[in-house]
Amino acid sequence: MQAGEDIARRLQNRDHQAWSELYEEYFPKVYRYVVLRVGNRTEAEDLAEQVFLKALESISSFKWRGVPVPAWLFRIAHNQVVDYWRNTKSKGFLPLDEDLVQDDADPQKEAEMSSDIQGVKGAMGQLTKAQRDVIELRFGGELSTAEVAKALGKSEGAVKVLQHNALVALRKKLGGTEQT
C-alpha cells in the first residue's frame, strides 16, 4: 500500500478498497505494537480495532503534511494505549490474559517463558522512553526506519541511533554479547 497523499485522499473519500487495504496491511502491525504495550491479547485486539475506528472517524480532519498515513495510524495507537493505561490504573486492576492459560501447558516451559518475558520487560523498562518507542514500533509494529521516524517526528538517523543504542543496552541487560 502506498503511504502518500494519494492514499490519504482515497481514505478521506471513503474508498472501501483503500480502507480494506489499510486494514489488511496494518491491523497485524498495530495489534503487535499494542499487545507489546498492554501485555494482554484480548485487550490488544479491542484496542487495535478502536484504532481503526478512530481513524475512520477522524480521517476527514487528516491534513497531509508529509506524514504518511501509517505514521498517523500508529500515533492513534499510541494514544489509545495511553488512554488504556490511564483508565486501567484508575480502576486499580490489571486484566488477566486468558489466552496465556492453557489446559495442556507444560509448567516448566511456561515458567521458563514467563521468566524470559519478565527479563525482557525488565530490560525494556530500563531503556529511555525514546528507545522503547523505537523498539516497539520497529519490532512490534514492524515499521521501517522511515515510518518510525515519521511517527515519532524524528530523523531517520536519530531513529537508527536510538535503535542501535537500545539493542546494545538490551544485549547487556539480558546477558548477551555486544556486537557493534
Architecture blueprint of SSEs:
Blueprint: H1 5-12, H2 16-38, H3 41-58, H4 69-91, H5 107-125, H6 129-140, H7 145-152, H8 156-173
Gross morphology: globular
What number of structural domains do the residues give? 2
User: End-to-end span in angstroms?
Assistant: 34 Å
> How helix-rich are the residues, as a percent range?
over 70%
The assigned CATH architecture of the largest domain is Orthogonal Bundle
**Relevant CATH superfamily of the largest domain:** RNA polymerase sigma factor, region 2, helix turn helix motif
At the first level of CATH, the class of the largest domain is Mainly Alpha
In CATH, the topology of the largest domain is named Rna Polymerase Sigma Factor, Chain: A
Which stretches are poorly predicted, pLDDT < 50 over at least 5 residues? none
Number of helices: 8
Number of strands: 0
- The averaged pLDDT comes out at 81
Rg (C-alpha, Å): 18 Å
Briefly note the structural class of the backbone. mainly alpha
Order of helices and strands: HHHHHHHH
Largest sheet: none
Tell me what portion of residues adopts beta-strand conformation.
under 5%
